[in-house]
Amino acid sequence: MSTTIEKAHTLSEALPYIRRYHGKTMVVKYGGGAMKSDELCRQVIADVVLLSLVGIRVVVVHGGGPEINELLGKIGKEPRFINGLRYTDEETMEAVQMVLCGRIGKSLAQLIGDHGGKALSLSGADGRMLVAKKLAVDEDLGFVGELTEVNPEPINIALTGGYIPVISTVACGEEPGVMYNINADSAAARLAVAVGAEKLILLTDVRGILRDPKDETTLIPEVSLAQVDVLKKTGIITGGMIPKVECCAEVVKNGVPRAHILDGRVPHSILIELLSDQGIGTMICGR
User: Can 29 be counted among the known catalytic residues?
Assistant: First the structure.
């Protein structure tokens, strides 16, 4: 009986959050630890479908670095990274498109369908949703781009039709016949602003921002824009967390009320954050 009462309490606790977010758009960047386990993948997708069925509009933006590396290994090509960014020559760009636009995007769309949802697998090239130019850095990265234009119309059409858009981050080039590989966190951030999202959620493989990276009990649950620079200067936000936090800060500056960095390894982390009093991970907000 106690278990039944606990389940009823959980549903009751979720109700005001469902009411608050009904009709609102959430952009979920899906990658990191949540993609490493088939069971976690199914749980994430089931949670996304649940949110969609209760009237919350969800956009999924996905990565796929390990899968790209796996395909490159099969063709005898060694992945190469420069300052954390994938060097993308023509052959690597073909692998990026095959994995992101093909294998992962279609598999996620099918999995959403298997869980009772409706999905459309789209790339940033569809409808010129994402347009980019070559990323200007000191060392040539090949076909790595930075976004110059975001067109949310394909996403809005899908959402209006009751579909969950599943977006792979390949962009059209400003110049004809060229496509670019885009960082998935950056693309998710730009798309969140373009669709007027209520929240951006980055699923990763750490709990959030930690005061001590070696101690997961030192999680900082909430960070304001004013605190971001201080935490970077004091060395609390370092390494791979810097671009994630900068993406979150950028969307908040541009009108998205909240951005969250969640541990995708935690089962149902999205539901815990959105539909419970407990919350999880680190939230970046304007105040």
Answer: yes
